[in-house]
Design brief:
This protein has 501 residues and is of the alpha/beta class. It is 30% helix and 19% strand.
């Protein structure tokens, strides 16, 4: 008997959910509102996407699925085109594409006695379809809807106003005075991108932020900020203590305290300050190619921006980099109430057990719907969802409800942190619940076991698969040795030497 599962969204979360559903004998039906897979990485001009010059601020060693390392020739921080090519290669390698319904937008999902009623519309023909599914995974991404600091901002002025989700290229802004609103990674990246063509770039920031390079001692920075030796000690600390440790680590990894206009005050160890990863942004600041204005946007006028402190900033164009909303308005109101949906919360818009399943919604799961989750952990979320559906993982009712309560407390915390989970904390909790155990390791595998005890590269997730997975791990480790001229002992020592505490 065919057992179907509906997956809403055809980006990275939808891809891996489709693959894992097939691993467990389910037949996926993936609803993707665009004409092709890839989510924001498709880079279409008329939809939310990434800009042309973007390269990832996480390395390819973490930005991957466990069963497919990147080609060794790919740079450590891939371009947007390379990310898209990787997703397409993954879909083809696992024969996923035939399960996709493109140009199909989910418009309603409701719980029924036998599972869930899903209704969708073909955006080309307008035709509406509906079907009952025993299981549904929501994986439509964290970048579904543009978030503006002021409603109707695009219609309040004759200025050219563009959200970062629609920004693609600096050429339309040649010689112009451009204001960039925000201090996120995308704001800093876009300000840097504009600085080569715009006549002047002014970045409006509300708070200081921490600036990290993409590489430390020639090694991708995420090998340190996602290292167990760095992150594990933070788990039991208060927000202020976490802030102090992050500040120490920031100075260590960045090699400088930051730009003078953005430095976090010594007495303010606030863990909610954003950390930005960028190689050239600091140089642009030092060369005055990007000017910083501190303040919060109040309004626009015919000549530019007005800040709440009364300062006015002249501009020809405005790029708004204030984030995105998760759009789950197609879910029935009762479901939205159960998951505590808040589309305006761009940190934790829903609550659940590890933001993945909810005790009151059997057969429904969520992948990639909080800030900070990355594609390596999408895979673990999808594994938890499918195994939970199939009764292959044991999570008590009490644990599920405690997980919901934990995320509700996180949502109410003041100040709210940049990320609700530290990446390895989240990974380790998922791994613990899934109870992935390594198969018997031989003496040939000791190098891999040592490294797994320090950090989780996605290839390390599934050592329970046996020798085939150890081969993939060795392939990645060999590349690290060759590319960065280090052996396993040097790599291990480097992690331990750079603990925060």
């Amino acid at each position: 008997m065919v057992e179907e599962i509906c997956i809403i969204g055809g980006g990275a979360g939808g891809l891996i959910s489709c693959k894992i559903a097939m691993d467990y004998g389910l037949t996926p039906v993936v609803l993707e509102k665009s004409s092709w897979l890839g989510g924001i990485w498709r880079n279409p001009n008329d939809e939310i996407g990434v800009w042309n010059s973007l390269s990832t601020n996480t390395s390819k060693y973490f930005t991957c699925f466990s069963d497919m390392p990147w080609p060794s020739a790919t740079s450590p921080t891939p371009t947007n085109r390379e990310v898209m090519d990787y997703f397409i290669a993954y879909a083809r390698a696992h024969a996923l594409i035939d399960n996709f319904l493109f140009n199909c937008k989910a418009i309603y999902v409701n719980k029924i006695h036998s599972g869930y009623l899903v209704r969708w519309q073909n955006v080309s023909s307008g035709q509406i379809f509906e079907k009952e599914f025993p299981y549904v995974i929501i994986a439509n991404g964290f970048h579904a809807k543009e978030l503006f600091p002021i409603s109707n901002l695009c219609h309040l002025s004759k200025l050219k106003v563009l959200h970062s989700g629609k920004y693609r290229d600096p050429k339309p802004f040649i010689g112009q005075k451009v204001a960039v609103i925000g201090a996120s990674t995308s704001a800093c990246d876009i300000a840097e991108d504009l600085s080569s063509h715009a006549g002047e770039v002014i970045q409006i920031v509300r708070e200081p932020h921490r600036l990290l390079p993409k590489y430390y001692q020639g090694i991708p920075i995420d090998f340190f900020i996602k290292s167990k030796s760095l992150e594990r000690p933070l788990a039991s600390l208060s927000p202020e203590e976490i802030g102090k440790e992050i500040d120490k680590g920031f100075v260590l990894l960045a090699g400088h305290p930051g730009h003078h206009n953005l430095v976090v005050p010594n007495e303010d160890h606030n863990s909610s300050f954003f950390s930005i990863v960028n190689n050239n942004y600091k140089k642009c600041l030092e060369e005055n190619k990007i000017q910083i204005q501190k303040g919060k946007l109040r309004s626009l006028n015919e000549s530019g921006l007005v800040l709440e402190n009364g300062n006015e900033v002249e501009a020809d164009a405005v790029i708004v980099c204030t984030g995105f909303e998760v759009d789950l308005t197609f879910l029935d109101e009762k479901i939205l109430e159960i998951i505590n949906y808040d589309g305006h919360d761009n940190v934790i818009p829903i609550t659940g057990f590890l933001n993945t399943i909810h005790p009151d919604l059997p057969g429904l799961g969520f992948v990639g719907l909080f800030r900070g989750v990355f594609i390596g952990t999408y895979e673990l979320q999808a594994e938890l969802i499918i195994r939970h559906f199939k009764h292959l993982v044991a999570v008590s009712e009490r644990a599920l409800r405690e997980g919901v309560g934990y995320e509700l407390r996180l949502r109410r915390s003041t100040p709210k942190p940049q990320f609700i989970y530290y990446s390895l904390e989240f990974t380790e909790r998922l791994m613990e619940v899934l109870n992935f155990q390594s198969s018997a390791a031989t003496s040939d595998h000791q190098e891999i076991i040592k490294l797994r005890d320090i950090l989780y590269l996605p290839q390390f997730y599934r050592l329970d698969k046996g020798e085939s997975q150890f081969i993939l791990c060795k392939q990645v480790i060999d590349e690290l040795k060759e590319r960065f001229s280090i052996d396993e002992n040097t790599l291990i020592n480097l992690f331990y030497q750079n603990k925060l505490n």
